[in-house]
Amino acid sequence: MASNATVQLDGPRARITGVLDRDAVVALWPKLKALPDAVTQLDLTAVERVDSAGLALLAELSAHARANGRTLALNGTPAGFNELSAAYRLAPSLDFNAPSAAS
């Protein structure tokens, strides 16, 4: 099934639209894995919903930014995001290893 998700870069912001699911991850990964260091925000306000593959993508992007000394802020909470974050015990920063992730 084809994805309707898109990503647009606008200065420090990467705006993702559509459904962030497995198909979207496959389609968007090439562009998102090469986000410029200038991108400090992921705008999820136009994301309709996210599944576990989409959440894994966001966590990977956040981890990559942290590994490079940057913070990647998330703007917006699509349907499924809070439930999946809680189920995987992710910290608000989407970090699996943060102290608040285990609480």
Short synopsis of the structure:
The chain has three helices and four strands. It is α/β, with parallel strands linked by helices and 103 residues long.
Care to describe what's here?
The protein is of the alpha/beta class and 103 residues long. It has a single domain (6-92), classed as 2-Layer Sandwich (Transcription Regulator spoIIAA), CATH 3.30.750.24. The chain has three helices and four strands. It has helices spanning 22-32, 52-67, 81-87; strands at 6-10, 13-20, 41-50, 73-75. Helix 1 (22-32) links the parallel strand 2 (13-20) and strand 3. Helix 1 (22-32) runs parallel beside helix 2. The longest helix is centred in the middle third of the chain and has 16 residues, at 52-67. It is globular, with a radius of gyration of 13 Å.
Jot down its keywords.
Transcription Regulator spoIIAA, single chain, 33% helix, alpha/beta, 103 residues
CATH homolog superfamily: STAS domain
Count of alpha/pi helices: 3
What would you say the CATH architecture is?
Answer: 2-Layer Sandwich
Q: For the record, what CATH class applies? A: Alpha Beta
Which structural class matches the secondary elements?
alpha/beta
Order of strands in the sheet with the most strands? Answer: 1-2-3-4
* Biggest pleated sheet: 4 strands, mixed
Compute the number of structural domains.
Answer: 1
**What is the global morphology?**
globular
Question: What oligomeric state do the depicted chains represent?
Answer: single chain
How would you state the average pLDDT, rounded? 89
Order of helices and strands: EEHEHEH
